[in-house]
């Protein structure tokens, strides 16, 4: 590499189903981008951790998995989930087993309508929907705290306890307010359910109000999660940055992805904002076994995810160029079936590579 040129080591975890197809498409595009721009280097190493690995070894990750991935600058993750493994086993076995110890407490989901794609909302122009959803990614309803007793009895009980800590709430609120501050509109909506959940959610609101004082230039409001779903559909342009709990943001971001056109285009970043650990980047869609092996998976979510990864690594110009290429391709009508097109995964991938060559 030329002197001063940055080189990044990327861990690839394709996982299951279409995860494998889209991560390989992402790798092709990233390699091509690095070659055409010639301003940075990428080195990839692939890990076979998946449901197939689980069926062979009885677990999703080897003992030293965290030590192995800590050496990388970033992780590009596909999807995990197989028809014959219960979802809670695969999710906790792989995705959460990485996110939580790597302190990736901020999950960030940008949402907008790409050129050449359409929102199912008839009242929504392209510029009306431009959101960033910040999801608390380490505690809340997905803390894993709870238990069962008297199972298989008439009087069986199960608890799923939500955990809200001062530390956890403060750090995500600070991250969300500073995300809102970095965007032109400087607007944040804090999503809550403090009318019904009088402990955790009232505490969440209290921390939001406290952290808000550190960001006097950010205009913020508070909204119950149920009302937020209708606002997203009826008044999309009134929203800019959103912060919500692990559960609420999980649901709202699927809604957001659908409103922006397809789950096949939406990216996610699992960030450790302290940068002590590598962050992990993934398309929000799952392993989609119904279309696995058909070659029709939309790779755009993984391309957008790759752009978010480059941005986080400090390669903002490369990220912009990649998104420009992707949107030129979708606008040109080279789209997979989920976006109403007829193109295959490889055709979209090749078209994006050609477009990168033109733009670089
Ligand atoms: P998981 O259990 O891992 O979440 P899933 O089978 O529920 O996976 P999702 O990925 O959540 O599937 O998506 C739901 C449906 O949306 C899929 O069945 C698939 O038809 C469609 N879909 C998802 N991702 C894509 C994509 N990248 N391209 C095209 N269609 C997709
Ligand atoms: Mg699913």
UniProtKB/TrEMBL annotation:
UniProt keyword list: Magnesium, Manganese, Metal-binding, NAD, Oxidoreductase
Cofactor: Mn(2+); Mg(2+)
Top-level taxon: Eukaryota
Pfam families: Iso_dh
One annotated GO molecular function: magnesium ion binding
Cell division in keyword set: no
Entry keyword NAD: yes
Chain ranges of the Isopropylmalate dehydrogenase-like domain: 9-352
Reactions catalysed, as given in the entry: (R)-malate + NAD(+) = pyruvate + CO2 + NADH
UniProt-listed InterPro entries: ICDH/IPMDH (IPR050501), IsoCit/isopropylmalate_DH_CS (IPR019818), IsoPropMal-DH-like_dom (IPR024084), TTC_DH (IPR011829)
UniProt EC number: 1.1.1.83
NCBIfam families: TTC
Record family assignment: Belongs to the isocitrate and isopropylmalate dehydrogenases family.
UniProt name for this protein: D-malate dehydrogenase (decarboxylating)
Species of origin: Mollisia scopiformis
Taxonomic classification: Eukaryota, Fungi, Dikarya, Ascomycota, Pezizomycotina
